[in-house]
Amino acid sequence: MHTILKKEMLIERTWHMTVHAPLVARKCRAGQFLMLRIHERGERIPLTIADWDREAGTIDIYFQEIGATTELLATLGEGEAILDVVGPLGNPTHVERLDGSFVMVGGGFGIAAGYPVARAFKEAGNRVIAVLGAKTKGLLICEDMLKGVCDEVLVATNDGSYGVQGLVSDVLQGLLDRGEDIRLVFPVGPPIMMKVISQMTLPLKIRTVVSLNSVMVDGTGMCGSCRVTVAGKTRFVCSEGIDFDGHEVDWDEMMSRQKMYSRQEQEALDYYHEHCACHGGAR
Amino acid sequence: MSGRKKELTVAQRCAIPRHPMPHQDPAERIRNFDEVALGWDADVAMEEAERCLRCKNPQCVTNCPAEIDIPGFIGKIAEGEFLEAARILRSSSALPAVCGRVCPQETQCELTCVLGKKYKPVAIGRLERFASDYALFQEELPLPVIAPPTGRKVAVVGAGPAGITVAGDLVKLGHDVTLFEALHQPGGVLVYGIPEFRLPKEIVRLELDVIQKLGVKLVTNFVVGRTATVDELLEEFDAVFLGNGAGAPSFLNIPGENLNGVYSASEYLTRCNLMKAYLFPEYTTPVAHGRKVAVLGGGNVAMDAVRMALRLGADEAAILYRRSRAEMPARVEEVENAEEEGVKFNFLVNPVRFIGNELGWVKGIECIRMELGEPDASGRRRPIPVKGSEFVVEVDMAVVAIGQSANPIVASTATGVETNERGYFIADDDGRTTKPGVFAGGDIVTGAATVILAIGAGKKAARAIHDYLSGNADWPEHCYRQGRGN
Q1: Which of A110, B142, B195, B283 would you call most buried, defined as having the most Cβ atoms within 10 angstroms of its Cβ?
Q2: A53 interfacial to chain B (CB closer than 8 Å)
Q3: What is the bridge-based pairing of β-strands A33-37 and A84-89?
Q4: How far apart are CA B89 and CA B158, in angstroms?
Q5: Which chain B residues have a beta carbon less than 8 Å from that of A239?
């Protein structure tokens, strides 16, 4: 059992939790994820490890309520526990000293997943810029955290309520226009955003590494549920990723596979609302 | 259960016909997930036990990788001493109730049963199941004797058949054993792969309870290679056994294989068995319910997948296999079960590509007909495509069940433990790898095989580990030489 030590709502339906998981905290590095299962009847879901405290034996996760499992997770309070947490899984992001800037492009709650990677590149002595996107100012998360580890944090909102009005791709274009010497772009967030950014950097020959979030069951390379085509070859996101060259990912296939269980996900959510909506009812 | 019966003559024993295993009715069983084979009651088991000729030099034992005293336990069943029969079984095997169900006895103990030369062999597997089940459901299970503590610590990686065997044998010898499992539940292929209708999970749980009662410490959610490396385990443990299984699904590598609705057998069965997706949405893990399902492959895993698809409501469930019936690696019993349930078999058919609809979901498999040519390396006749014979099989779900390969997570993070070109650990006959103190066995050495072979490898490795921990710490020279670096 893994006790939730801290829980905070960042914005509506988006949460941050600090969870006791010493075995994961002991080893994890930027870019890795964990799998969790809340109770005996629950599914296993992957979540990026956004931060950790090795001494305290804790890890930090960020999640959005998008289905039965994440909605149930959001009902758990401080002092309550998650049945299974396993990790760290996936390969750590390859961190190196670049000859120019590192740009983390984060969208939605993917920003939290980009945080440890931005920090690692900063610690490796790089100039680090974060480009953060949100629909509106009130939906932007983790800005202050990133300000603590970046040389520059730029924001795009769709409605112009904060930062630049437009998309993260507009901000990235702005960086390029001003002559920023970008050597590595790291988009993390909705697949469509990662696709657009990858398409943008391809003709410019700017190395682009994407952190993929696919459907998983075991998270250790055992089932192939997470497979994705990269450079024409089938790769397993969980055991061979989760980072891949954004220019080589078959994005349309990746997005299609993410929707494989849309109907059942809705059914599971309806069932949850019907049976377990009261706090604790599902456990 | 008292009173010794009169000994039967050989002729009398031979005259008893082999007892069949009662099964759930096919029409009934495809609508549930309960065990198909219903088991025997005591009268049937005792009568079947009388068929055993009590050979002085029992040939059945020579062909049992788990080294079970077969005439010994059968004799106890004949006497009505069922707990004693179970104790004999458990003194050699940590998984007798599992083996009684899933071992291919027809190619092991029953193949060499002397009675089988003229009559049908003694139903050793069914008797093993009977005695083990009888004991598992008793209040006080007779436990094997444990040797005094040696103070030596062993890490066993992977709680599947090989690892459970090593852990069970070493704990009996007095060693301090910790069994590490990557998933949230121990059992390996017994819980994620083999379906409830062939091996109830309650049986696996009870067998694992026994080794924990004997003192094995179980740590789940621990991925060796990620949570800790083999090198790190060696800092804490005197020896490490790697029994992590083959564990990476093989694909056909043909176009369209990543369409939605195309599963590896590992994924399909893991969702259904380990995650209980057949009880969705009460259990949260989803799985597709195909109406027209094709399973590609001819092994036991393919049979499990196709029979699962039927139970999940498929109108049509078919096996597509590139060779003919004779070459199918599946047990005859499993093929018969599948046929009874209405599974269709299409032989000499090879998939060329998967065809998708506009939503990215599989809607057909283009196949080509095959004919058998000269024997290949496996001794089976090689299938050759028949030019121009392409045709399309309509499906809305497909399962690729063509085997597993080595999962690299453990090997890639362990220093000095060498693998072969296919990623399997190199080990001698007793499981010694190229690194002192590190042993390996089961599918991660041999490639995907059977439960009983993994158990056999586990028994040999356990003996070698005990020897290593009992003062013979010198690592034989041939172990280093078996690596590629030499």
Answers
A1: A110
A2: no
A3: antiparallel
A4: 23
A5: 248, 407-409
Q: B273 at the A interface (CB within 8 A)?
A: no
Asked if B87 and B144 count as a contact pair (C-beta separation under 8 A), the reply is yes
B286: nearest CB among A220, A227, A264:
A264
For an interface test with A, which of B267, B278, B284 has the most A Cβ atoms less than 10 Å from its Cβ? B284
The pLDDT profile of chain B, 486 residues, written as one tens digit per residue, is 444 567 899 999 999 999 999 999 999 999 999 999 999 999 999 999 999 999 999 999 999 999 999 999 999 999 999 999 999 999 999 999 999 999 999 999 999 999 999 999 999 999 999 999 999 988 777 788 899 999 999 999 999 999 999 999 999 999 999 999 999 999 999 999 999 999 999 999 999 999 999 999 999 999 999 999 999 999 999 999 999 998 899 999 999 999 999 999 999 999 999 999 999 999 999 999 999 999 999 999 999 999 999 999 999 999 999 999 999 999 999 999 999 999 999 999 999 999 999 999 999 999 999 999 988 888 888 899 999 999 999 999 999 999 999 998 999 899 999 999 999 999 999 999 999 999 999 999 998 888 999 999 999 999 999 999 998 778 888 887 777 654
- Residue whose entry in the numeric block shows the structure tokens 């967030």: A189
Structure tokens at A64: 């959005």
Q: How many whole angstroms separate alpha carbon A191 and alpha carbon A201?
A: 15
Cβ-Cβ contacts under 8 Å, A27 against chain B: 226-228
Q: Best mutation site among B221, B235, B244, B264 for testing chain A: the one with the most A CBs within 10 Å?
A: B221
DSSP code, position B272: I
- CB-count burial class (<10 Å; 0-12, 13-18, 19+) for B47: middle
Rg (CA), chain B: 23
Tokens representing B374?
A: 């000269």
